[in-house]
Amino acid sequence: MPDEPSARRLTPLRRERLYESLAAHISDFIEAQGLVGGDRLPPERQLAAELGVSRATLSRALAALETRGRIEVRHGVGALVREPGPAGGVPTWEASLAARPRSEVLVAREAVLAGLARTAAGADSSLRTAMLAPDGRQRTFDHTWRCVRRLAGDGLLAELDDALAGHAPGPGDSAEVHQRLDALADAVLRGDAAAAATTCQGMLGG
Amino acid sequence: MPDEPSARRLTPLRRERLYESLAAHISDFIEAQGLVGGDRLPPERQLAAELGVSRATLSRALAALETRGRIEVRHGVGALVREPGPAGGVPTWEASLAARPRSEVLVAREAVLAGLARTAAGADSSLRTAMLAPDGRQRTFDHTWRCVRRLAGDGLLAELDDALAGHAPGPGDSAEVHQRLDALADAVLRGDAAAAATTCQGMLGG
DNA sequence: GGTTGTCAGGTGGCCTAGCCACTGACTATC
DNA sequence: GATAGTCAGTGGCTAGGCCACCTGACAACC
């Protein structure tokens, strides 16, 4: 099948919804008027009339602006322009983590570790056995941890772990760590969620 | 102006809009039904009728889910579940949390809770006694939790808790929760970090 | 004078009802 | 077989309305 004429193919023309253009328009309006944090936008009824749209559509545009952090809509009060937070806008993982001392990141990751271990202990029994059987188990943090992560799936905790791992390295290969890893693996293997979580506590911070 | 009674000051009680709860509800529904990328949600009219809300409100909930990247709404087609991909750009707290089903947020917050409880148990002994003495202790989740949070300080875990709390409410006031809260408070009071953390496990998810 | 209670006006939240625009599949037609 | 027309189902948007909420002013009370 020839698929090369993509160069001449028309793009699907991503139709923009009215309330989305409206949101952009209002955002421009905020800037043009020089409105700053705390200033109030005109009431919905008036704004809708001036813009020539229904109040429902305008309201959706405002809701969109709110989820983007540009304004704050309060029942009985109105739509308030929001001061762009530190580093302009919505906080990102990176910004938050970079601003914290590593000790805090370690504590946080430890908590995430415990949560993941707990989740892993609740995974399917045969899966746990296949991945963590005592024989052939490698006692490095990275290996054991990969197994636990695999068992725990890729939920929000996993995403957190990824983000945190970039700002705080795992432990080394000391005898104490090995002991902990064995205990962790055994607890997960047994399906003992509480024990698995407890084992993780203090694993990184010493 | 005296400003010290901040301890007794009530929180503004962030009211949740119907369409926001609805969005969370639908997100749960997607997960419960095991819908994956490309699957279609029921049409708006039917969904609205089943959920007992107006179509306008339901539509707003879907719009919210769309801006968060959980679904894609196409005119004339329907609402399609989106595969949770990297989805471009720097990940923000909001985007990451909103794109996840509430169950995952609960699990994550539980892990954070355990970490904070553990930290609180390591706080200064006199502080712990002052805040969590058995007499005069209020057994609501919010109150006990505020004390633990205060004891744990405002590190990265606290920031995480704030972010997560916005996307998954705490537990109610059942007898089982009260029992857990008592156990938690006692563990923190004793300075038993492991017990404090263990008590938190399963507190939110049941 | 300061405090407290009341109330009306303005605001957003949500609803009902409906029309319009878009999409996709089906069906004649050539 | 390919094409064009048709149609049912879908989301987009509008109009008008009621309700819950917040605020500020004002009156009543200490």
Please tell me about this protein's structure.
2 copies of one chain form a homodimer. Chain A is mostly helical and 206 residues long. The first copy, chain A, has 10 helices and 2 strands, in the order H-H-H-E-E-H-H-H-H-H-H-H. Chain A has helices spanning 18-32, 44-51, 55-67, 93-98, 102-121, 125-132, 141-152, 156-165, 175-190, 193-200, and strands at residues 71-74, 78-81. Chain A has a two-stranded antiparallel ribbon. In chain A, helix 5 (102-121) crosses helix 7, helix 5 packs antiparallel against helix 8 and helix 6 runs antiparallel to helix 9 (175-190). The longest helix of chain A is centred in the middle third of the chain and has 20 residues, at 102-121. Chain A is elongated and about 75 Å long. The termini of chain A are far apart. The structure holds a DNA duplex (30 and 30 nucleotides).
